[in-house]
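Recall that a protein's primary structure is simply its ordered list of amino acids. Everything else, from secondary elements to tertiary packing, is in principle encoded there. The following example makes that idea concrete.
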Amino acid sequence: MIVSPCLEARPCPALLVTAPASGQGKTTVTAALAHSHRSQGRRVRVFKTGPDFLDPMVLECASGAPVQQLDLWMGGAAHCAGLLHSAAAQADLILVEGVMGLHDARRRVPIWPCTSGCQCWR
């Protein structure tokens, strides 16, 4: 649950879609969930972790809303939290598609984006 810090605080359910590796169907599952909830009249916001330029187009079609990137390295934790809180104030459901596996960051490069970084977006 993400709670918006705006004047009218309202909880918004959120789901992180991840898998052990790339090519496991995360985008397909996220798009299917977004489309299903949108078809039921819910306002859905979708986020991608890490930079990606192709998948967001599919996810935008499925959700009917712009898809934003949650990238701790490029935007920082405060920026990512702000995006999520803003979406929570407007949406009925937030879907976050993870990047590759949960802990796939390169050990030699500590700033490499990985889905486990989402833990600091609470």
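The domain at 2-121 is CATH 3.40.50.300 (Rossmann fold). The chain has one domain: 2-121.
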